[in-house]
Amino acid sequence: MRLLFILIFLFSINLTAQDHPIGIKIGGNSSTLSGDGTENISSNINFHAGLFTEIKLTEDFRIQPELLFSVYGFEEDFEGISNIRLNYVILPVMVKYFISNAFSFDAGPQVGLLVTAKNGTGSQADVKPNFYDRDFGANIGASYILSEKVSASIRYYFGLSDITTETSNNQNRALQLAFQFKIN
User: Fold this and answer.
1) What is the gyration radius of the CA atoms in the chain, in angstroms?
2) pTM summary value
3) Percent of the chain having pLDDT more than 70?
């Protein structure tokens, strides 16, 4: 899995040398957990940041691979409130369909590698053994180009794989709002 991240990142750097724009992406997440036993769980506000590139296929279609650090998580009200922070390195690959010069609908898969998992209350205990190291899902959203160098996007992430090592079946969910800044 780590080798896949490195190869795709190196491939995207090679693409930028071939006149594809590269940029910085910064945004916020409202994330939660869905699935079995989530009735006492509420969403948590966190962030994501990283790099992206954009590959133009046709006038209407572009592919946007991204390499991001993203903090998902949730608040659990079970024997006191726990704030669980799941820190991932994620690789979304978005297909963008432009319906105008500035507005696109976006969709694509995402893989994630769990770096750390902490219970944010008290001593910030390590809870990584309670979660699998990988996450897989799909994104759907929209983007709007604000200027030649700046765009904004909104997307919803649907985790498809079980992320908990417990007997329950749980997936990540996240609403994401971001700004993208092209640097070349």
Assistant:
1) 17
2) 0.85
3) 86
